[in-house]
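thread: overnight batch results

M.L. [08:02]
morning all. the overnight job finished for the chain we discussed friday. pasting input first so we're all looking at the same thing
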Amino acid sequence: MYRTFVLFLLISSTYCDSSTLNNHHFPKNFKLGAATAAYQIEGGWNEDGKGVHMWDWYTHTFPEKIKFNYTADVACDSYHKWEEDVKLLKNLGVSHYRMSISWSRILPNGTANNINLKGVEYYLNIFKALKEANIEPMVTLYHWDLPIYFHEMGGWYNPLLAKYFGEYARVCYKYFGEYVKTWITINEPQSTCLGGYAEGTKAPGYIHMGEGLYQCAYVHLLAHASAYHIYDKEFREAQQGRISIVIDSGWAEPASDSDSDVSAAQVERDFVLGIYANPIYNGDWPQAVIDNVAQRSYLEGFPKSRLPQLTQEEIDFINGTSDFFCLNTYSTNYITSGNKVNESIGDPSYYLDKGTSSFVDPSWPSDVQWVHLVPWGFRKLLKYVYEHFNHPEIFVTENGWADLTGQLNDTNRITYISEYLSALLDAHYEDGVNVTGYTVWSLLDNFEWTNGYTQKLGLVQVDFQSENRTRTPKDSFKWYQGVIEKRCLVEECIE
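M.L. [08:03]
and the structure it wrote out:
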């Protein structure tokens, strides 16, 4: 432990200006962990009875849509190297490990009538090893790898998927509930719905800007609520676990103090964060989303709003289906008003419905477009979530730094994580936000979707040119190890 502490001090003093960091200890029960996702690390894409899922299909069918035609057929080869990964986690000292289950690995067709016991065994082995290492599994049921059968049925456009997702969740609760006490239903519906079903930039590549995102959001909410109610009614009493959904959002900061920019920033939050959070924590869509889409749909000549109207039964079914708030966040944007709601009438568009424009300050440190070092935005986001969604417990389930090289001397990653953790402590101690955990993305360099292996976010370098997928801890691994051990960002902390 002494050696780890010395390394922490050397690394932190070399890379971080500790005088600017919050000097409080992390609260007594605060959890510090790391995350991965099944498709991004497992590989073994067609081994031991696993079925094909949407990203298998997408990378194989449209290789030109992935940088350098990469696939995750092997990825980090964690299907075979999971024991090494658990050892890394134990050495890191994390309290929890956020991971996901591949739906098609345990249900090859996606349906509960065909259970692949080899897939079940794979995850049980991981859970047992995590328990032995005193690491809590935080398990995501769906991290974008939809079984191909359901993709062919329309995917997240089809409300029937909510029923099938609930049945899949029931299988997971049954087989893994002895070991898993923290469940996440769905990861980042905004990323799926915007990229996959509106813009066409992620699998399945659908371009339906007028209705795609809203229908996808609607089905995601029903699926999440279905899985929540099944756990609540059938498993919670015996298993004593809890369950939530991960919502992703950056912070939307008004570009100026003008009324129009302040209003535009709120509309941005409603359309990006609130469209998923509001039905779960407050009931129904945000009013700005309801009003804007209805107004533009009318002016575009539609007989009714392009936004699915939630019935009172659906509102009641969705509302309250979360035991805590899971947040993924990486950056901040300045927001200004673009078109007015009743202008620019043409092709129906989610972006025109929002009527906002965004930009970033070029002075903000960034290695890739979607990650910026803006810790004050993170603090504001935590405070906003706490105040607008009924003061939930907040758990940060993803946050991290992307670079293009994966170098071991990853000074920027250390600076980014330390600044964001400091902002989190500010939110807790100065703003009174009940934030109880932080999860760095990611434990390993991995397959970053359409970016392939060109963006590196791991605390551990993975050599994707090596058949062995050799893992080498970076300086950030050693630094984070010291933070976890000391439970503090600076040399001298106060309670």
